[in-house]
Design goal:
Number of domains of chain B: 2
Strand content of chain B: under 5%
Largest sheet of chain B: none
Strand content of chain A: under 5%
CATH superfamily of the largest domain in chain B: Winged helix-like DNA-binding domain superfamily/Winged helix DNA-binding domain
Number of strands of chain A: 0
Radius of gyration of chain A: 34 Å
Largest interface: A-B, 39 and 53 residues
Oligomer: heterodimer
Structural class of chain B: mainly alpha
CATH class of the largest domain in chain B: Mainly Alpha
Order of helices and strands of chain B: HHHHHHHH
Largest sheet of chain A: none
Number of strands of chain B: 0
Shape of chain B: globular
């Protein structure tokens, strides 16, 4: 009776070890894991989706296949935003250079010549 | 170190765009002028670290950007123009865009995260390449591209720009036409 009661616990530890060590072949071939083994396999596949295996070599065109997360604006909208941005910026540019900046640069230039 | 007149002229020639960049970042002319002045003082006192023949505007923009990040960013909330009187403080009035558009755009730009705002201004207005902008901001080129794209998308969202037809005079024209088309 004691041995039978301890069996699920031992099996659970074995499953954990198999998963931990990555012995997937052993787990698949043992045939004794039942539903727990399937659950662990599913868990592994879910993890792979979130955490891609860095050792696995990716195909060269993987960038093209990877879904693009960022939304791209249409050309017209980009053009319009560019117009507004440059319009605002040019307004600032048209402010020119305040005299005190010219004086500042000139003064520093003169001081450097004296020194 | 003696200041080479050619370098001095380069510095002076960069001031208008440097100031425009500062105003775009700060949203306040007085504070922008303080920032530009501090940038010039720092640049000219370390002019020996500038290598002649390299990109002077990029060097000055980097100094200004770093100063802004270290000091002025803390006071970002203070510079918000709640009254919308900002344009009145400008000597030159908005030309290419109307006054309302100018204010709407400026307000929308101010809502962007500062990293997206600076990336968009550097690439979209100041004329820097993605490479130069990445060097100025101290990040990867891909990061700058991503920030610019996100900034544009956010601005389009804030200004309700789906296409050219959805913004500006055409919108008003459609309203006058009473929804025709």
């Amino acid at each position: 009776m004691r041995q039978e009661a301890a069996l699920p616990r031992v099996t659970g530890i074995a499953v954990w070890l198999v998963h931990r060590k990555g012995w997937t072949r052993l787990a698949n071939s043992s045939g004794e894991m039942g539903d727990q083994s399937d659950a662990m396999k599913n868990r592994k596949s879910n993890l792979q989706a979130v955490e891609p295996d860095s050792d696995r070599s990716e195909p060269q065109n993987s960038m093209a296949k990877r879904p693009h997360k960022e939304i791209r604006l249409g050309r017209e909208a980009q053009h319009r935003i560019g117009e507004l941005l440059r319009g605002m910026y040019n307004t600032y540019i048209n402010e020119g250079v305040p005299e005190h900046f010219k004086d500042l640069v000139r003064r520093i230039g003169e001081e450097s010549e004296e020194a | 170190m003696k200041l080479d007149p050619a370098i001095r002229d380069q510095v002076l020639a960069t001031v208008p765009s440097l100031r425009a960049f500062a105003i775009s970042l700060c949203g306040n002319i007085d504070r922008a002028d303080d920032l530009v002045q501090e940038t010039l003082l720092r640049a000219l006192s370390h002019i020996d670290s500038f290598q002649p023949g390299t990109n002077m505007p990029a060097w000055l923009f980097t100094i200004l950007r770093n100063l802004f990040r270290s000091e002025y960013r803390k006071r970002r909330r203070e510079v918000e123009d709640a009254d919308g009187r900002y344009a009145e403080t400008l000597k030159s009035h908005p030309e290419q865009t109307g006054r309302v558009e100018f204010e709407e755009f400026r307000a929308a730009l101010a809502k962007l995260p500062s990293d997206q705002r600076e990336a968009l201004i550097l690439v979209g207005a100041s004329g820097f390449s993605y490479d130069d902008a990445a060097a100025i901001c101290g990040c990867a080129v891909g990061t700058i591209k991503s920030r610019v794209n996100r900034a544009r998308t956010r601005l389009a969202d804030l200004l309700a720009i789906d296409s050219v037809d959805d913004f500006g005079p055409d919108r008003a024209t459609r309203a006058v036409l009473g929804g025709r088309g």
